[in-house]
Amino acid sequence: MFGLSEEIIRYLIVGVLTTLVNFSVHFICRRVFKINMNLSMVAAWFFSVLFAFVTNKFIVFQNYNTEFQSLLKETLLFFGARVASLGVEFVMMNLLVEKMKLKESYAKIGTQFFIVVINYVFSKVIIFK
Fold first, then answer.
1. Under 8 Å CB-to-CB from 82, ≥6 apart: which residues?
2. What is the three-state SS of the chain?
């Protein structure tokens, strides 16, 4: 499809599902449990990254090593990489919106393309190699 490898197609599908997990957890926290916005965002981030770890490991990169040491290393690297990409997103958003006065929605869309690439490279080259 469009000259993309099966792995990249799986990565994009898992990314959409991860986004759905994020939105669902956020909505449930806010509407059902009446948790404030910031805590809801943290819960949504945590559960979506956890979901992304499992699906990226087994579905996208087809890494079936379940030895404890390997799982621990991959989990720590994955969460660390996602924290790092979150930091990059914060920097980019503030630069684009606050300094360059770009509309926030455009900045968010633009940064997401960059973040998706960063997360893929971290996962492919460092975490699930």
1. 49, 52, 119
2. CCCCCHHHHHHHHHHHHHHHHHHHHHHHHHHHCCCCHHHHHHHHHHHHHHHHHHHHHHHHCCCCCCCHHHHHHHHHHHHHHHHHHHHHHHHHHHHHHHHCCCCHHHHHHHHHHHHHHHHHHHHHHHHCC
Residues in Cβ contact with 75 at an 8 Å cutoff, skipping those fewer than 6 apart:
53
pLDDT tens digit sequence for 54-99:
999 999 999 999 999 999 999 999 999 999 999 999 999 999 999 9
Question: CA neighbours within 13 Å on the CB side: how many for 64?
Answer: 1
